[in-house]
Amino acid sequence: MKVAGIHHAYGSRAVLRGVDVELPRGALVGIVGENGAGKSTLLKILAGELRPDRGVVRHEGRFGYCPQQVDLNDAFTVRQHLEFFRIAYSLPDLCRAEEIMEALRFSEFAQERVGVLSGGTRQKLNLALALMHDPDVLLLDEPYQGFDWDTYLRFWELAAQLRAAGQSVLVVSHLAYDVDRLDVLWRLEEGVLRAGAAVAS
Amino acid sequence: MSPSLVRFVIATRFALIEHVRNQFAMALVILFVPLWISLGQFMIVDVRVSFRLWATGQNLIARGNELTQISGALNAVTLIVGFAMFSATFSSGTFDRRLAMAGYPRPQLLLAKVASLVLASAVVSLYATVVMCVYWSPRQPVLLAVSLFSAAMTYGAVGVALGTVVRRELEGIFLVVMISVIDLALQNPIASKGADTALVRLLPSYGAMQSASAAGFSHSVLLSCLGVQLAWFAGAALLSLLAFRRRTRSAVTGQVPSSTQGAPCSLPTARRPRSTTRS
């Protein structure tokens, strides 16, 4: 994924003032910043959800995007969500999705309507929809919100597996608790990304 | 079945599931339609009135309560179908965009909405016609059902357009209700002084009202009025299409191949780097 010269403003308030991103293959990269720093705006632009005022975003290969807002349809069951996205991704089956459900421990909710699920389980499905097609680049916006501690740890195990498989994972968070799990940390400050240190061993 | 057709069928199935699970809309269909028509039957005087059918210039004779039932049935079907389509589109807006950006073809998603609209409009219109036939005998019941159907389709398309552009649910529901109330109240020849003026020809359900009135009380088939209604539907559907395309488009400059030929059936352990050049 190549991103160059991204500028974006809401009215007169400039949020991004020239962001460049080049995501290395097989890296776990984090972007942190204060509330309102523009992290979600940046990720929406990277995912194609928002058009920047200026700049270029170019994807090569498959990508997956887990938005901060849980984008699900309350009328459908978990299984129906997976089936709908299986068609969208042109997948032959749901094997991989089922493995992700097992890894995140929510297989037992497969037949439940999403509208009656807890916030944490909804977030697990939100994440699974971004992962189920084995993307080359994965964009995750606050992916573990609502997770309990065990699920939080399982999420990082999963992220490490993806990195080991050569996939690039970009995690956006307003917290910097997880810096030791990342290969690269960037801080979004005053509308630009400031390169942080490579932190993981 | 071709892959395109499979995607259309699956999207239609999910669109119908969504409608069936909209319990409020289902309750409206079951209760509101017969309630409105029955109130027209029993609360409005059944004296004969003469009114001029604007489309033909013909003077028709109808009982007041029967004419009110036609107006009430149009009001009920337009409100219900407009509300159901608005509600489904509004609540699944971000989900539809996510699906489209994941690779689901937008034409199939939109066509599925149209297919569910056709089915919902047909069911509600047929139901309203059957309820009216319990109380009196329209001269052309099939044409009456078709007229109701054309109005329901128009408001359904309006509902999709509103569901795509408004930001709050209440705004959309209010707009559907107000458009339908103003539209039909001004056309009621009993209640409105302006029912015979040129202004009513510009109202969204004018064609359906004229055609339904002719179906109820004459043997005339007003194809031109159904054509006018079809034009209203086409206009509303075009607006919906443009709004839907705008809402679900991807802003990424380069290629966005989020879909794939398939994924390995096990959690990845190692993958060889590909030869893809990245800048």
Can you put this structure into words, describing what you see?
The complex is a heterodimer of chains A (201) and B (279). Chain A is of the alpha/beta class and 201 residues long. Chain A is 29% helix and 27% strand. The longest helix of chain A is centred in the last third of the chain and has 16 residues, at 149-164. The radius of gyration of chain A is 17 Å and the shape is globular. The two termini of chain A are 24 Å apart. Chain B has one domain (3-248). Chain B contains nine helices and two strands. Chain B has helices spanning 3-20, 23-43, 64-91, 93-102, 106-135, 141-165, 169-187, 206-217, 223-248, and strands spanning 48-53, 58-63. In chain B, a hairpin with a 4-residue loop joins strand 1 and strand 2. In chain B, helix 6 (141-165) runs antiparallel to helix 7. At the A-B interface, strand 4, strand 5, helix 2, helix 3 and helix 5 of A face helix 1 and helix 4 of B.
Secondary structure layout plus pairing:
The complex is a heterodimer of chains A (201) and B (279).
Chain A: E1 2-10, E2 13-22, E3 28-32, H1 39-47, E4 54-58, E5 63-66, H2 78-89, H3 95-103, H4 119-131, E6 137-141, H5 149-164, E7 168-173, E8 184-189, E9 192-195
Parallel strand pairs in A: 3-7, 3-8, 5-6, 6-7
Antiparallel strand pairs in A: 1-2, 1-4, 8-9
Chain B: H1 3-20, H2 23-43, E1 48-53, E2 58-63, H3 64-91, H4 93-102, H5 106-135, H6 141-165, H7 169-187, H8 206-217, H9 223-248
Antiparallel strand pairs in B: 1-2
Helix pairs in contact in B: 1-5, 2-3, 2-5, 3-5, 3-6, 3-7, 3-8, 5-6, 6-7, 6-8, 6-9, 8-9
